[in-house]
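Service request form, structural biology core

Requester: graduate student, group of Dr. S.
Request type: structure prediction, single chain
Budget code: on file
Notes: please return the result as structure tokens.

Sequence provided:
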Amino acid sequence: PTQPGPLRQTLDALLADAQTPPAADLVALVVPDTNRTHSGAAAADAYAYLKDADVDTVLMVSPSHTGDFGRLSICQADQYRTPLGDVPINDRLRHELCDEDDDIFVDDTGHYHTEGADVQLPFLQRVLGDSFSAVPIVMGEESPAFCRELGHAVGEILYGQRAVLVGSADVVGAEPGALDALRDAIETFNESELMHLLGGEKVQVEGMGALIVTLIAAKARGATAARVLSLDPPAAGAPGAIAIAFTRG
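Core staff response, request fulfilled:
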């Protein structure tokens, strides 16, 4: 839904039905990128980890839906508007990221679509209320070098911060057995194997850069467990849902 009332009701119903997560120190999430309602339950299971979390900033990493543009962009606005209200952008972290990596720019390219941050922010508003700021990042290139750069930059910038990273991605194709290999690479924090799988033909993930960046940054921030909540193949013309919680302890 795009209207405030129906959107609020839909999100609250999904969150009410979400799995109860184990007590853990949340570091990062991977959630579905799509705005299709079939992925809502997977997203809600991930966002349930944020209930009662001590978080004041959320960094979001999303794929570009306007094609490659050779850089990493953080939106220029001071507020990101959703049907549920405005979310302030953390200007200090935005510029610290730009200073940390020459490939990160304050630029609206790739932002303001019906996927990515526009899907994630309403979930965050229902879970965290109005007590958080955001830093939405769009990956205009998903090369291994860019993934490593952004992953390490985020890990560095978020050191000691009351913050969580949210990467968004969808499974758009998978050969038999490929998702099992992907699950194993995620749960063992095997960065090299994850890049190998996503760079081949056996499994295709829209937002593979966001997935890789989230794993790298979570590991840099001391995550010790990766719990795969959903990892489904595409079906009936819709992408498969992926949801992961990275935690310490």
